[in-house]
Write a structure and sequence with these properties.
13% of the residues lie in helices and 11% in strands. The chain is low in regular secondary structure and 83 residues long.
């Protein structure tokens, strides 16, 4: 059973969030950062994501379809089983 990406919230993670070290979501391109003090904190900066916060990544995803405008060409639409 897949787990939800913390950014786009689609079920793209192949394991528990805490076990997906360095996994990059194919839907939003957010790199799962298990090294954050609290990876569910929307305002904590992520070293794996160029000091972007999860809050900013979510806003970008809604606006651009990727966690950062730069990654638009690296993402895809979610599959039915990921919704």
């Amino acid at each position: 059973m897949k787990e939800k990406c913390l950014c786009c919230e689609y079920k793209t993670l192949p394991k528990k969030v805490s076990e997906c070290v360095g996994f990059i979501c194919p839907v939003c391109f957010w790199e799962n950062d298990v090294f954050m003090n609290n990876m569910y904190d929307l305002k904590e900066k992520s070293d794996c994501n160029r000091s972007m916060t999860l809050e900013q990544a979510r806003k970008n995803y809604k606006k651009y379809g990727a966690c950062d405008e730069e990654f638009i060409n690296n993402v895809r639409k979610p599959n039915k089983d990921e919704m």
